[in-house]
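Reply to dn_fold:

You asked what the input looked like. This is it:
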Amino acid sequence: MSTTEKPIHHGRNVKRFRELLGFKQEALAMELGDDWSQKRVSLLESREIIEDDILAQVAAILKVPVEAIKNFDEQAAVTYFNTFNDTSVNHGPFMGNNSIFNLNPIEKWLEVIEENKKLYERLLASEQEKVEILRNAK
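and this is what came back:
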């Protein structure tokens, strides 16, 4: 490791994996044993380097490889995933240059609501026409 390279922060990685997997600190502490508490897990997550035996226990509980915790580099992951936002890169047969997929479920939901409003307004107008025809027929 060069002197300019930051070492990978094991504790921060434990926290990230724990949160991604939906574990609370209290739950991890319970799984680690009687000597552990939420506060001790919090202190563990603040440590840059974690001993191999503790790291192995945590990895087994979280069901992730020890190497994943030891080697996960957030900056490298961010850089990797940011390449998917780079429109100058062709990411495969389904995405040509300048292809951007915007799959926002809230926007889709709002579109459906607007469409339903329009359908309801047309139905209401149709019913009003029927009522008017029936009134004129009397």
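The chain is about 65% helix and 0% strand.
Hope that clears it up.
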